[in-house]
Queue: 4 jobs
Job 1
Amino acid sequence: MKPVTRAGRALLLWALVSLPGLSTTGCASLGWQWDKWWSDVKLPDFPAFDEYTESPKSYVEIALEHDFLVRVKPWERAVLARHDMAWDPDALEAARREHTFFSKEATMPGGSAGGGGCGCN
Amino acid sequence: MRRSRRESRRERAALRALTSSALALLGTAGKAAADTAIDHYESSYSFSTYSEDDLKKSDTIPGGETKRYEINTQQLSLAAPVTEWLDLSLLVTHEHMTGASPWYTTPDAAGTPIQIMSGATIQDTRNDMRVHGNYYTDSGRLGFGGGYSKENDFSALSFSTDGELHFNEKNTTLSGGLGSSFDDIDPTDADKYPTRPDHKTKQSYSGFVGLSQVWDRRSILEGSFTYSWDRGYLSDPYKEVFQVGGVQNYGDFRPNSRHQFAFLARFNRHLEETESTIHLSYQYYIDTWGISSHTAELGWYQSFGDSFQIAPHVRYYSQSKADFYVPYLQFGQPKLEDMSSDFRLSAFGALSFGAKAEYVFHTPWFRDIEWRTHLSVERYLSSGDLSLSSVSVASPGLVSFTVFSLGVDVAF
């Protein structure tokens, strides 16, 4: 075994044996009185049961509290109010196209409910 | 000072659109939905001609019918305020259809299916009327609708209810609805064709939920899920299935129940720099007949000043085939429980593109009406080659068509 390694092991052994002794006896040289130090710590009152069991907030709840989804104020809606910003600016055309695609393809149009079928052939 | 009606209408329109997030989802005579009842009358009229390309000569028997459907459609809508928190709208559609439609497919000498068209020219009209009422509250909307559609051989009675709830200072909107339709089918010439039933019924029940979010001052986003259950006679009484060496054709037999699911996402954004608005949408659809489909659409609304707009759009669609789609039955092949040669149940893809020109003007000298006139054209092409899924043999009945449309909206 190399001398360096041996010295290291000896130091480690000394530390393991002596440090707990120093600290538990309140060795003046370190200036710590562990039991007194702990006595200074004021534990909080035991929380009420429901408070204690409250689940942490989800990211969604936090986001909502911080107005994450409130992105546009009423006075900022001029662009959103544009005619061409509607999902279907031309309702008649939308209804006609929907009916045509429905008649010639096997897919149901999404985003709404109801409406009669057709005897399309 | 007395404000002009146009000014006040503009202001009210802006106010009304405070929650343009709510927009639309109206199944029926839809005005662009907002969060208050409309405060003026709106009426629209549109005339369109739909015409299908002739069948290719190589896709049918020599001398066979190649003409297909032509439809003239007229639509008229009227929306009116009833009280501050109630409005009503009405949409009437009148269609006249004429032409021949795909009947069944047979193999040619090489075994490739070719299309046989219905012999007699079909003449039919469809009249459809829908009413929809909206009740508005501070935080939402509740709508009720009903409709009746009548053709010579078909009638449908439908009901719907839908609603919206606004959250987050009306930046977020939850919407949903339920609908049902009760259809009666009375095929013509049922006595002449053994495969056509006398009288059949089908019912459809559907529901959807959607969530829309104002993304920023210039963009809005929406996702929705739609489910529908169809039951009853879902076959097409006018289609038949041919069997090689068979004595006579079989009828079209489809399962008597179908569950459908559609997931739709759409996004609108306005680009102030170029005065243009982009509409993007994508829908994934799947049903219990084995069909799944993708639909993607891009619209571009380009304004030139306050009154003129050109709006080109392109749409791509691709579907897989139904489990029971067969072009024809082979010689000696046993009859299948479910089978259909309908091209609409085959695998194909479709590309459509078109453009609309719109001109808006006011007549201050005549009741200060706002007129919105538009002219549009759309071309639709479908083929097996356009499909995302591999198509072994494309249906010869796949349709391509052109639609011209002319319309006017008035607000007064």
Job 2
Amino acid sequence: MNRAREWFKARRAARTEGWRRTDALVRAVVCGLGLVTVGMLFHRLELVLVGLPLVIGLLLTPAPVGTPTVVSRPHPDTVDAAVDATVAVTVAPGEGAAFTALRMPMPATPGTGPVHLLPAVEGEVRTKAVWQAWGHSIYLRPDYLFAGQDGLYMFGPVVGVAAHHTVLPPVDPIPPGPLPPRAAGLVGAHRSARPGDGMELRDIRPFRSGDRLRRVDWRVSLRAAAASDGTLAPGTLHVRERHAEADADIVVALDTRLDVDRSVEQWNARTVGADTRPGGSLDLGVRAASSLSAMFLRQGDRVGLIDLGHPRGGVPVGSGRRHLQRIRHQLVHTARRVAGSGDPILNQAQVPKGATVMVLSPFLDDELVGLVTRLTRRGGLVVAIDLLPAELTPDRTTPWGPAVVSILRAEHEVRIRALEEHGVVVLKWESGPPVGALLRAVRRRRRS
Amino acid sequence: MSAARETPDALKGTLRTSALLVGRGMPAVVLRVVILLVGAVIVLVPWREGAGVGTLVVLLPAVIASVYAPASPAPAGVVVSAAVLVTLSGGDPLRAEVLMLVPLVHLFHITCGLAGVVPVSGRVHLSALRAPVLRFVSVQAVMAVLIGLAAVLPTTRTHPLVEALGLAGLAGVAVLVIWLQRVK
């Protein structure tokens, strides 16, 4: 009795586990052998001829054995966007398998990809990948199914282990520009307004008590002496005065509350398969923040990040390559939490004294304008980078679509004008952002 | 269109020769289109022989069902009904319609088998089809020999002993098939 139960249990397991027969095998056995048998019994050669290829196919197909496996190769958890990579899995199809149906990414296309019907070859199956979109995503889930000759047997389908990774926002090269130096800075790469031990000449003045002798400009001093009585008297000695060099802080404030793109109709729609809209304001803002941070960190400045949507989502100012990685990781993290419009949050303690603040936003609300204008009262340079698309497409589902776009545009222009009147430098983030040129112009304006 | 191909020579130094580089392949819906085309030709064969009712009532729906669900009993319906309809039409068992039906039904069976293991949204790579094409050609070559043999054999009444031997041989083939198809 127990043996019979075990036998039935094994039969039931064979229908769901391991290699099992398919409809094609049943078809070949029933139709092939059936037609041949009936044809022979009734002396009808047509039935035999139609059924015979199926029987020959059966005779040429042994049942597969073994347990096929698909193992994905370890891949870095963090990758840079737009960098060529290879995704690979190791396939062991076992004896008798003829086909591998394997889910692999399409070349140069994000996502887990479709199921590919491949020959059952033992070894690595590779695909080339380029991840253009930054963010946290599943890049590989090698679901698999193995099949015997003519699809007569199959193993699976088996759901593969999903592999996640983080694609960091790209760093686009931006021409560097000088930042206003930090008032309390003692060392750094930027020329400060104060005299000090820097490289850049500030003035030539008569020698005073306390000046170092190595600062004496002998050529000017000798000329001054020749102009008087020819002796190098204390009044004729002149020294070169130089500018001090100071650190500069920059704070990039990203508005993560909104993610809008060209089509107004899609503003309230949820994005499918991605955290942000490709080409939308948040995507643009994250890419801009990443590129700006990289530019300023490369020239030795200290950079911080503020998430205007979440008070704890920022990164304090810091410097170095590791700090850039930290900012890029945080950008990916903060951009995942777009949760509708709320009041922008900017803690004053997050902005060091004298820091330059760059606010990246589509500027669709007055609260943010008020916050930015309050920042200008601290005396630092404030740059507003407008991320609203240049052309907006009205919502076609409502007759008010064009009117809504007109009002949005008018309000946006009023906000931008208000920012400019309060001394905020406003620029659009488009191809080839003129940040470097803008900073140089601001600096010249301040000096004059 | 590029299919999964073997590793280029430039990469062979670093990869195993069995490594496959997955290309774009072609959409798996192509297999369904092949099923539809082959099925359409299969439908035409008994239709031309005058089996209109059976073709419209049984064969055509079975072909359409096979395109929709290749891993179902529908293709079996196509195989059986096509064979029965052509047989019932009468005539020379080695006439052109029958000879045309032999590779068509076999191709239909194989294509349904392959389409049953890959989703319609998947991709099919030509390298995967090389082995089934070779098998198909080999089986059809064997069939050509058998048909040639049948053509030269006398059509007179078969001796009962030969018939008994034939049936015993068939039983042997059935046992062999069942033995081979045991899943270990």
Job 3
Amino acid sequence: METTPGNTAVRVRGLRKAYGSHTAVDGVDLDVRTGEIFALLGPNGAGKTTATEILEGQRGRDAGEVAVLGEDPARAGAAWRARIGIVLQESKDFAELTVAEIVRHFALYYPAPRDPDEVIDAVGLADKAGSRTTQLSGGQRRRLDVALGILGDPELLFLDEPTTGFDPEVRRRFWDLIAGLRADGTTILLTTHYLDEAEHLADRVGVLAAGRLVDVDTPARLGGRHLAPATVRWTEAGAPQEIATDAPTAEIAALSARFGGEVPGLSVYRPSLEDVYLTLIGEAR
Amino acid sequence: MTATPATAPAPAADSKPRTPRPRQRTAAYAAPSVLRIGRARAALELRQFFRDRRQVFFTFSMPIVMFLLLASIFRETYKDVGVTTQQIYVTGMLATGILSTCFQGLALQIGGERQNGTLKRLRATPMPPASYFLGKIALVVVSSLGQAAVLLGLGAAFFGLDLPTAPGHWVTFVWVYLLGATACTLLGIGASNLIRGENGGPIVLLPIMVLQFISGVFVVFAELPKGMQTVSALFPLKWMCQGMRSVFLPDAYATMEPAGTWEHGRIALVLTAWVIIGFVVCTKWFRWKGRDEG
């Protein structure tokens, strides 16, 4: 059997999956370290969900080696499922049951679950514990999904686009919850559309485009972002001016000396995660 | 509000592996007991069923409404055997109630659960798959026996149905019910694979309609054309109807059956064959995932 070093939660080599003539995942290598939050970014149809579901054991693969917590998800059994948590993309199940009933029921499946009431409280649904799922808003429904994902006290948590449809305040609270899980030592593999979410939460980011992993790095270094020159902009003689530089501070000091103090319309621009992301997926097309 | 400390995430550059909090796991993983989880699933299924008032209403009213219509339209007495059409319709409704609850009901319900993410979510947990099926079995047993009780009560109270007193008749009822319900349940679980999208109903409803007509549910079996009788003999419903007639109609009626007897041996044989077919279909083809989900 595949053995994995103790500090690698997920190890993927040469992963491939095709649907008919369409190759959804095309030779992906990936390592997720124990205890980190790893965000998988990519446009719709890039293969994020396919790749994640293969790692979750929900989908088969055509080729490649996969070890998740040291086991092949395609063959792993109940003992392995007890160590992972999965928050799937949105679902509409269990319409007739209340939040508390569902969470308490699912707790029975796990050998060492968290306390159901504490989990309900942790996702901010304590005042909705007695409500049926049909009465929950989209964001509340999503938090119930998260509650079921973390209920078994997983070592590895999969989050597939967890905050789609959240309002900004709920999203902030959700980020706090996820950061708290990481502080507890939970490894988290996250897919998301939101670059600010990846930047805020993730230790490392992988960008998937057209089934290939085009870059993996920390959010600050992705796509050579930390090496990219800054752009200094100002207004002079009624026209916008700009200069790309590796030394923006020196540039501004020189400008300031030239203008004798305030520089009109001064701004310093560094490439955002979104800029490097768009460049990366643009190159992959 | 939350119990979670609002820790700021560590700087992104620090991606050293963290030490996982020791989890309270025993060294050897003890799989959850199939029976214990099965009991919990059964309680959950029943709770969901009885909370859905519409579903409860239609489950119990459908065979009763059909029976009342048929019993009011056709009022005949077979004088030489001392049986009325109403009595015959009660037995047909008993059999078809098992078919619609166990086969049609389960096929549509499990098909729906495959569509709406229930099955996927369950597969993501260590729940033993057998427990899921135990829960479904408990649900169809409760609802099909409930239906049977209502029909028998109605038939005995208003339509001259004599509930048998001889224990032998009830033994027959039990094994016909068990074999018929088991076959229909297994076939229903298998047929859930055919349900796609929200409008999968007709694919199971049509064959059921046909079977009901040719198996003697809507029309007294003895009066059907020979060809239909022969075709229906290949499927379980005809034999379930015949078995129910043998329980609730006087023995003299056996002369009206195609073979001139109740044919208990053949009923058991055909229903057992369908149990085996259903079992093979389930174990070979049951899918937790939707068809498009590889």
Job 4
Amino acid sequence: MNAVAGSIRLNLTPPVRYVLRIADTCLIHAQRLAEWCGHGPVLEEDIALTNMALDLVGQARALLAHAGRLEGQGFDEDQLAFLRDERQFFNLTLVEQPMRRSSAHAPGGDFADTVLRNFLLATWLKALWTRLAASSDSDLAAIAGKAVKEARYHQQHVGDWVVRLGDGTDESAARLRAALERAWPYTHEMFKRDAVDVAAEAAGLGPARDALNDAWQTEVAAVLAEAQLAVPADTPFTSTGTLGRHSEHMGFILAEMQSLQRQYPGGRW
Amino acid sequence: MTAAAVVANRIDAAWSALDGVPDPEVPVLSVRDLGIVRDVLEHADGIEVVLTPTYSGCPATEVIADSVRQALVDAGLGPVTVSHRWAPAWTTDWISAEGRRKLQAYGIAPPSGTAAAAAGAAGTIRIRPLGVACPRCGSDQTERLSAFGSTACKALYRCLACREPFEYFKPI
């Protein structure tokens, strides 16, 4: 019987937190998208969703490796992905919400939720990568310069789907509208400025989240208008995944994602 | 021969050896045709080949590094190290003219060659993409079947004139 791998604990300086927020958002979003593998509504979308997941995993790997270098204890990308506890993950809460599977406590889980979430996130990541490409940190700038091309293609693909469903049948429009209402409260966190953002902005590391708001609102509103959908009203709710305080779904994702490395420490194939 | 000439010869030989290393997913192209070899450097402890990845998550990255190392060792140029350089980011504009011709002949529609110029003007949706010419019959009456294809770098199209499906190397 193998020993179970213990958790690592990071020195969470503001730059490490800043990079982990982006890395973990890409990683957990990719993990959710990968749940569609073999289950897509049509073959083309099965391939699309897993291809987008692959790009996001690649981006997450590069960012986690970089976060490991900034953190300084010598942890690599795999240790950061598989051996951190929930409270040391800093992704947006939106990405950990159930995507394909739903339950009585977590409605959603139809294709419209997937389309809509992909669109909100691709638009956000594109705005972020665009600004991050001018980072004072040359590694971060290089990762962003590559990722922005991928995010642009993702956004076009899922933007097409938002219009197809929103401006489609009564059924598809109703489902997309419901998905939009469910996702919208979580978008507040995408633009919430805090001390980590302020430090990153001051150091030229990258933009504060609130700086992404205008570009995001403009592009989202344009596509929603094309899809015959109204922009929902903002709510007072703010999620806290970027602070390490997650929804009830996060633990289950990590249990699945980390189980192999936890049970077989350092396992390779 | 001077020491400088010896180094120049070894570097030329390395570039020639790289002509023989195929991309594992589009084997009609060499890694040089693809434009992912950014530099070949001679150091005191051997040759360094600098590659740039095509896509962040491209699963062929490690295989390509291994093939490059092996090809140079087989050409008697070892020891060899392979490093990766992310910036500037790879673009399909770096695929050589020869590479574009090979893609076309292989039945894959080559990318535009002006992806960098088009990037800034890219919209947020593109329900009706511009006509991509069919690599078999040349017709531009084609439609996209799938935005993503068998590998990260391709999309799937169909020609409305000759009815043949074909792959399109996505410009990025």
